[in-house]
């Protein structure tokens, strides 16, 4: 038996055994537009995974991971999706902040912050976007100043995923007075459980509140909780986005496959599969998913060498657009029935939720417009856009 096949059998057997007893009802819980669903159960499940060594697989062993190869990580995500295991709650810590600390943090930061991520004892959120700094992230206005060995942070962040549940936030803020654009920004690690932090949920079209506004009013963090040097925050922040668009997308794409299969089955049930135009779109969607997966695996070489490069923007552009189009296709397959809520007062079907939530896919984690600029300028070497 090959090493890859043995690994597949190992994780498959563990999932089959683990999703029983107290976790028997956890299958299929959570996901985009449903992050509120059974959060405590999903948190307990992920801590159960951690105790068995199934978190942070791709991390080096010295930091609590398994040094899993890209192939093994793909296998894990495939089997996890096939088992309909619950949506992960530690994605931001495991796939974004953790790799950033490993690549750019100090030894002290690695000792302090990595073990609680591996054990799912501390959850993280991302403090990037602001009301005036979304796609134009370099316009960040949240400010921090060093005061007696502590950073004091004031400002507002928005679209902060899972901020209500997070213990910590990595915050991109301006630490050099008078600086503009990419200069003078720093990457701070800020505790969320303090008087200077207020979280306000944002109700989405799905009726849920995965995203939040976060207000910092003289919030504090230790002076050592800065990743990289003061003023080097833009470089660190871009590396974090690279990790988000890199290996973390593998699990997302496996989930996409399940959604596509559901849409195909719906087309058979409704008879929409007989429509040659819809059938063509279904086939194109399947082809697009296969291309997406192959491209994601190909670009993983950048992750193994350190922080992903600008090529990771290709992956984000592709999957964001593909998933939004899948939501549109799903509604067309459903037909006029898709215009009526599944129940009162605002109960949505999986297809409706897919359509509504996927509208955001081409915006969050870097909008399509910004990804095209990055690809044009940093991958293809085209002249910079006039600003």
Main beta sheet? 4 strands, mixed
What is the count of DSSP helices, taking H or I runs of 4+ residues? 12
- The overall pLDDT, averaged over residues, is 87
What low-confidence regions span 5 or more consecutive residues with pLDDT below 50?
none
Key descriptive features of the protein:
12 helices; 387 residues; Butyryl-Coa Dehydrogenase, subunit A, domain 1; Butyryl-CoA Dehydrogenase, subunit A, domain 3; 3 domains; four-stranded mixed sheet; Butyryl-CoA Dehydrogenase, subunit A, domain 2; four-stranded antiparallel sheet; alpha+beta
Would you mind describing this structure in some detail?
The chain is α+β, with helices and mostly antiparallel strands. The chain folds into 3 domains: 3-89, Butyryl-Coa Dehydrogenase, subunit A, domain 1 (Orthogonal Bundle), CATH 1.10.540; 124-231, Butyryl-CoA Dehydrogenase, subunit A, domain 2, CATH 2.40.110.10; 245-379, Up-down Bundle (Butyryl-CoA Dehydrogenase, subunit A, domain 3), CATH 1.20.140. Helix content is 45%, strand content 13%. The chain contains 12 helices and 8 strands. It has helices spanning 3-18, 39-51, 70-82, 91-104, 107-118, 233-244, 248-270, 276-299, 301-304, 312-334, 350-358, 368-379, and strands at 124-127, 143-147, 150-157, 168-174, 185-191, 197-201, 212-222, 226-227. The strands form 2 sheets. The protein has a 4-stranded mixed beta sheet with strand order 1-4-5-8. A 4-stranded antiparallel beta sheet has the order 2-3-7-6, with no helix packed on it. The longest helix has 24 residues, at 276-299. Residues 231-380 form the Acyl-CoA dehydrogenase/oxidase C-terminal domain. This is Acyl-CoA dehydrogenase. GO terms for molecular function: flavin adenine dinucleotide binding; oxidoreductase activity, acting on the CH-CH group of donors. Residues 6-120 form the Acyl-CoA dehydrogenase/oxidase N-terminal domain.
């Amino acid at each position: 038996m090959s090493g890859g096949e043995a690994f597949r059998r190992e994780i498959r057997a563990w999932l089959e055994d683990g999703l029983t007893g107290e976790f028997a009802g956890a299958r299929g819980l959570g996901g985009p537009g449903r992050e509120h669903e059974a959060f405590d159960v999903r948190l307990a499940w992920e801590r159960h995974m951690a105790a068995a060594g199934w978190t942070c697989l791709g991390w080096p062993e010295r930091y609590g991971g398994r040094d899993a190869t890209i192939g093994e990580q793909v296998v894990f995500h495939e089997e996890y999706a096939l088992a309909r295991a619950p949506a992960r709650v530690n994605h931001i810590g495991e796939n974004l902040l953790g790799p950033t600390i490993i690549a750019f943090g100090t030894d002290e930061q690695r000792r302090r912050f990595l073990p609680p991520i591996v054990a799912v004892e501390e959850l993280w959120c991302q403090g990037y976007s602001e009301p005036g700094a979304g796609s134009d992230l370099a316009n960040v206005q949240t400010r921090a100043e060093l005061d007696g060995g502590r950073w004091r942070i004031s400002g507002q962040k928005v679209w902060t995923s899972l901020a209500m549940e997070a213990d910590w936030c990595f915050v991109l803020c301006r630490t050099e007075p008078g600086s503009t654009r990419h200069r003078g920004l720093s990457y701070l690690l800020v505790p969320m459980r303090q008087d200077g932090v207020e979280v306000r949920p944002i109700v989405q079209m799905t009726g849920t509140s995965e995203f939040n506004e976060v207000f910092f009013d003289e919030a504090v963090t230790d002076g050592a909780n800065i990743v990289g040097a003061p003023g080097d925050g833009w470089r660190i922040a871009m590396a974090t986005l690279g990790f988000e668009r890199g290996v973390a997308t593998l699990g997302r794409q496996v989930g996409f496959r399940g959604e596509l299969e559901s849409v195909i089955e719906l087309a058979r049930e409704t008879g929409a599969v007989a429509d040659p135009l819809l059938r063509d779109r279904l086939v194109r969607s399947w082809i697009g998913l296969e291309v997406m997966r192959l491209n994601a695996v190909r670009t993983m070489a950048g992750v193994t060498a350190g922080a992903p490069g600008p090529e990771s923007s290709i992956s984000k552009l592709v999957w964001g657009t593909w998933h939004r189009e899948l939501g549109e296709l799903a509604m067309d397959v459903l037909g006029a029935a898709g215009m009526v809520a599944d129940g009162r007062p605002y109960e949505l079907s999986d297809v409706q939720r897919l359509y509504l939530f996927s509208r955001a896919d081409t915006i969050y984690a870097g909008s399509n417009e910004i990804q095209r600029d990055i690809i044009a300028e940093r991958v293809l070497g085209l002249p910079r856009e006039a600003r």
